[in-house]
Design goal:
Elements: E1 12-16, E2 19-24, H1 35-47, E3 56-61, H2 72-84, H3 88-107, E4 112-115, E5 119-121, H4 123-130, E6 133-136, E7 141-143, H5 158-166, H6 168-177, E8 180-181, H7 183-189, E9 194-195, H8 201-213, H9 217-229, H10 235-249, H11 253-263
Parallel strand pairs: 2-3, 3-4, 4-6, 5-7, 6-9
Antiparallel strand pairs: 1-2, 7-8
Helix pairs in contact: 1-3, 5-6, 9-10
């Protein structure tokens, strides 16, 4: 499958070389998610497992904001009506579908870099959290605000993933209170890999994606797999898993290319095989 086969209806997808940029593009509403955009994002990230020409993905939002979360009228209103009609199965179908988006992001082999400006709230904060790398701006405000609408902070894997990024105590504070994490806090706590100016954050994220895409992409996919799988392994199992992963990577042509380039005192040109 090639990237040109994608024609999403609920967000934009642009491919430049080996980089795909996914843009949430409802800027007049700060890019909220709907039932349809959740599902289409899930399906897109699932399909990336089979895409041969995209080696890294940038996720961003249009109009100076990343994502304001689930659309109040198009998601929260219908969910309240399900609650009023005792439609537990409908509610569970929705929460499982949103969780499937996170699982799809974590299991797609390409590194995902989030370029985050402005509002990053609710499900938008989850999309940022589920990315592999995050670049913010000084005006980025990130809030896991589920408690503000009477829900648990346990949403879409937040209680599992967020503590691993910023630590258990800090994650607990954000999930219990729903308060905004400032950009400075986010960088200091390790949520953001770095901050950039609003006008350059997308370009910097794409440059980082291009750097990764020009690297040994088979090995990058193996690294992402190990980062995901080893959360539930003890140290002995993790060391063995990495021994197997590295032995597989040693069979790639990129490994030989790197050695020959080193001998020739040249920069290796990786091809991902």
């Amino acid at each position: 499958m090639l990237a040109k086969d994608f024609s999403p209806r609920h967000f934009s997808l642009a491919v430049d070389g080996k980089i795909a940029t996914v843009t949430l593009n409802r800027p007049e509403r700060k890019n909220p998610l709907t039932f349809e955009s959740y599902a289409e994002l899930r399906d897109t990230f699932r399909s990336l497992c089979y895409v041969t020409d995209v080696k890294a993905v940038v996720l961003t939002g249009a109009g100076g904001n990343f994502c304001s979360g689930g659309d109040v009228h198009e998601i929260i209103g219908p969910l309240v009506r399900m609650q009023e009609s005792d439609d537990m199965q409908g509610l569970l179908n929705f929460t499982r579908m949103t969780g499937d988006l996170v699982k799809a992001m974590r299991h797609c082999p390409q590194p995902i870099i989030a370029a985050i400006d402005g509002i990053c709230a609710g499900a938008g904060a989850i999309l940022a959290m589920a990315s592999d790398l995050r670049l913010g701006t000084p005006r980025t405000k990130t809030a896991f605000l589920f408690v503000r609408v009477g829900l648990a902070g346990a949403d879409m894997g937040a209680c599992n993933i967020l503590p691993r990024i910023i630590g258990a105590g800090r994650a607990a504070e954000l999930l219990y209170t729903g308060r905004s994490m400032s950009a400075e806090e986010g960088e200091r706590w390790g949520f953001f890999n770095r901050l950039a100016a609003p006008e350059s954050v997308l370009g910097e994220a794409q440059a980082l994606a291009r750097e990764l895409a020009d690297g040994p992409t088979f090995a990058h996919a193996m690294t992402k797999t190990c980062l995901q799988q080893e959360w539930s392994l003890d140290i002995d199992a993790a060391v063995e898993a990495e021994a197997q992963a590295q032995a597989i990577c040693m069979q790639t042509r990129d490994y030989g290319r790197a050695y020959r380039a080193f001998v020739a005192k040249a920069k290796p040109v990786f091809e991902g095989d």
